[in-house]
Amino acid sequence: MNGRTPAEDFLHRYPQILLIAVNVIAFILGLIFPDWYNRGMVSAQAVFDRKEYYRVLTYMFLHAGLRHLVMNMLFLFFIASLNMSLQERWRFWLVYFSSGILGGYFTVLVRHFTGSAIWSVGASGAVMGVLGSTLALFLRQRGRIPEALRKSYLVRIGVLALLNLIPSGGSTDYLGHLFGFLTGFLVTFLLGDRNDGEDAFVLPF
What sign for the dihedral angle of Cα 31, 173, 181, 203? Predict the structure, then answer.
């Protein structure tokens, strides 16, 4: 027995539920207080002209509709579980926030130089950062994971990455996806190998 209640045990196994809860609460608050929602969105003009740098954090917790929220949170739940089966949780948290913040910053930086007035919201950049991180982990951890399983996951992650990085119209922020993905990938390589004493790869589900 670990002394935890079932709810505490669930949160211990799936800490990304905390992120999902914050995103859901922010979505509800955005519906109730539209002005609050608008102050959390990010754009090049808001960040570089008005110096509202906080927006590269707040935009990560806002979503443009229920479908946008649900898709991002489902993706986050499953990819985070896989990511944390390959590295320590603190690395997951670092990847998530660095991907969202730096991905958002570089996105609006490009738009600043191109004169784009696009506004962005959503956890997609951070979630794509976790996907990029997971790709880096499967590339690095040869020998720890059965090779057939490792190659299978590399193919699946590659397909997911292509689906989310290749523009296909609509209102998706593919630039944010790209910078988030690259940030997560690079941060994971810079962090090096895990050091928590875990040797075997265990599937999260």
Answer: positive
Distance CA 75, CA 52 (A): 29
DSSP 120: B
d(CA 126, CA 130): 7
201 burial via Cβ count (<10 Å: 0-12, 13-18, 19+): middle
Q: How many residues does this entry show for the chain?
A: 205
Half-sphere exposure of 80 (CA within 13 A, CB side): 28
> For residues 14 and 179, which has the higher predicted lDDT (pLDDT)?
179
Active site residue 124: yes
Of residues 204, 196, 11, the one with CA closest to residue 87 = 196
Measured between alpha carbons, how far is 198 from 33 in angstroms, rounded to an integer? 45
Mean pLDDT within 128-136 = 96
For the ranges 2-16, 30-44, 142-156, the maximum mean pLDDT occurs at: 30-44
Residue 4 to residue 12: CA distance in whole angstroms: 9
| The pair of three-digit structure tokens given for residue 91, joined into one six-digit string | 């690395």
The active-site residue out of 81, 124, 133, 171 is 124
| Res. 110: pLDDT tops 60 | yes
